[in-house]
Write a structure and sequence with these properties.
By secondary structure, the protein is an all-alpha fold. The protein has helices at 2-6, 10-14, 18-34, 38-57. The protein starts with a helix and ends in an 18-residue tail after the last helix.
């Protein structure tokens, strides 16, 4: 999934469901935080921007879905 996240295309993002975008956002954040190379980090940052823009357009809250209890279905 990591290479998939870094190779996002705008048209492909718009066709995805919000939950998939949230998962991809989390993966991109992980890639950015653990990237060994500047180029990989830059690609992850661009993916984060694209995903964040699309999620904001859908009025979805962008956050870490793995640690945010609001995304566990309880809030």
């Amino acid at each position: 999934m990591q290479s998939e996240v870094l190779a996002l295309r705008l048209g492909r993002i718009r066709g995805m469901d919000t939950n998939s975008l949230l998962r991809m956002y989390d993966v991109a954040k992980e890639i950015s935080a653990s990237a060994q190379f500047q180029q990989e980090r830059a690609k992850a940052e661009r993916a984060i921007q694209r995903l964040g823009n699309e999620l904001r357009a859908r009025a979805a809250t962008v956050g870490n879905t793995r640690t945010n209890p609001a995304w566990a279905g309880d809030g």
